[in-house]
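G.,

No rush on this.
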Amino acid sequence: MDRSSVRVKVICRKQSDIQKKYNALGIETAVEPELLLFSPSEKGWKQNLSLVKNAFPDLIRGHQDSNQLAREIENDFDVVHFNHASLFVLAARLRKKTGKPFSMHIRTRPEDTVLTRLQSRSILKNCDKLVYITENEQEHFKALAGKAPGTVIFNPTTSPAQNSSTHPRIPDDRRLKIASLKSFRPSLGHSRLVEIAQKLSDRGETDKVLFVMAGDMRLWPSLPGALGAVAARGGDFEAYVNDLGLAEFFHFLGWVPDPEQVLSACDLLAVPSMENNPWGRDVIEALSLGKPVLATGEWDGFIKDGETGLLAANFEAENFADELLNLFDDRAKLDYWGETGRRHIASICSPPDRAHDLQELWHSVAHRQA
């Protein structure tokens, strides 16, 4: 980003290493613990009702903070960029207190509910320009809000060192290792990995594939069927896998601070989501590291079937089991897919190019308002 023509201040909700990284680049940061934040849940209406009730104290406490923030915006800045849709309440409050233009990043595809429709329409009302991380988020936002003005800017990513250290708890053996980097949610396809493991087990192929699971694997009792039953007794997704007799196919790490270490120790990334959305931060980071991706869906902006990974329009556990066994015997194909994916992501997710795109968007919003 051309820093001679833009000054950026980043306001975070909590203290973390991110402030050090920004400060090392000469970017001013501030921490505002009371920053208004709200994300609808996909766990059901009872959970959402509880979230709404819990949000009221934050709304009251945040009133004075938003007044102060609005004064700072009016005095010192030309554009406010909200980096996530969960800041929509803050955007609505600030919209009443400042005439400066707003832009917002749309990074997710939340479940279609009354709350998410209200959220999307509030964003549409209060923000002058929207940025979507792929065309898919733009289409989904349009379905929720009725229209989706703005532009698509892919997330930038750098190519990590190819000799990145590997996670010390991942076995160093010949098994084909498939990483999953997301905490459990029904829509993310964790159960589909179990289906693949079951097909492999039925064939007696118990020593060729290992699914390496990073993230919070807690379940909740409102989940249907066996998952909810496991949660009711205090178990997590690992306990569910053990109940099915498939423990030898899975290795659970819990939450990890450095997912690059997990990717470095694995051969592929798996994102077989129930929503068939083959994109996301984990996808572009895996490809940038030269790791192919196994996914479900039709959009091939990142994953190209047979070139940078395995992409299936419809999930078939049997077919994925076949493909993984073939890859176990053909590591040269993995290397080829990995290098193809690395070059592809480097070309479309270049940090300088995508930073330039965002800077141009900010300038266009500011000039339109002037």
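When you get to it, here's the other one too:
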Amino acid sequence: MSIDLRLPDLGEGIESADVLSVLVSVGQAVDAGDSVIEIESEKATLEVPTDAAGTVTGIHVKSGDTIAVGQSVLTLESDGAEAPPQVDESPGPTSDGVPADIEAAPQRATVEPEPATDGPDVHVAPPFADADIDAGGRPVAAAPSVRTFAREIGVDVRQVAGSGPAGRISMDDVKAHARRRPSAPEPDAATPLPDFAQWGPVERVRLSRLRRTLAENLTRSWTTIPHVTLFQEADVTDLEALRAEYKARAQARGAKLTITAFVLPVVAAALKAHPELNASLDFTAGEIVRKGYYHLGVAADTERGLIVPVVRDVDTKGVIDIAVELTDIAERARAGKLTPDEMQGATFTITNLGGLGTGFFTPIVNPPEVGILGVGRAVPRSVLHDDAMQTRLMLPLSLSFDHRALDGADGARFLSWIVDALQRPTMLAMES
């Protein structure tokens, strides 16, 4: 029996993906759950599994292809045993007329249409949850066509106030929101390039889907958010001594104890003390959404570009536990094994370029967050300490924030709190 494997639903708002590699070959036997292709969507690199066992008899995609949801990926020849039918357990509408799946977190479900009587069975692999999430942690109430339209005109659908039942967003809502906001041009959209080949050899390299998405998001952030960046140095001499003392404990658990592992709990504590930074701006509603949880995005450099996995509930974890989690995240990020869920829900972001020798820099806010902390390379420097010039290890810190959501003094107090905590690493334990 022939089985046609198609690209699954990748989450609301994502209609296509780029094929990075094909993981099987014609004639190869596969089991249900085996990965068959590796793809890149706007937010993540994913391996697509097959939900049926059989022998690969045809491969319909290749590396570099852009394929749409529902497009045929490969054909399997099975032993004739049909996979058990999947029951649609989607909840019905709620009492207010809104489908219940709008009210609940997105679920991974397998959609398996009935096979045609005169053709091969069609199997759709399990989709990946990757929906737009609003400030309250729920999927945005908008149809896929509305999400697509919003993306095409450069509107973040999460920021749109819906006028329909239970806040459902319509096309008109998106248009009204677009008219109220400043325009955000596409990167270099109106800048024609000269023919560079007239001066020497050139090579054109296609932008990956991740790089294109980064370009669009960063342009939108930079052109719509009034950024302010503050700079301070923290004396981390004592912190470095503490790191050296405990790094063996982290190594015993297979982790590397870095400065970042200390910075995360300090930032979580600072956000508790300064809730205006652990927030999102709902400009349309005229409200600040303050969050009572502390999920920190940690920017990671990979071969495919910048991604921002999220460490959740940082305020409940110890430094060694955070080091273990960061090590695991870094390894899976480099291998392209992170899921979309692991890159959603951050309330604040930290980006560390110290390992690349960078000092101060100006990080760009990652909306809908209102702040991002840049960490540079710690260097020994002569400073006045205890009324004498001493060589101390100084860590450069750069805080960028959305000036619409908070004032410069708010940002300065937040950054000074972090500096003070890093300079006195026992302070947090004493206060808690």
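The chain is about 25% helix and 25% strand. The CA atoms of residues 123 and 411 lie 52 Å apart.

Enjoy the weekend,
O.
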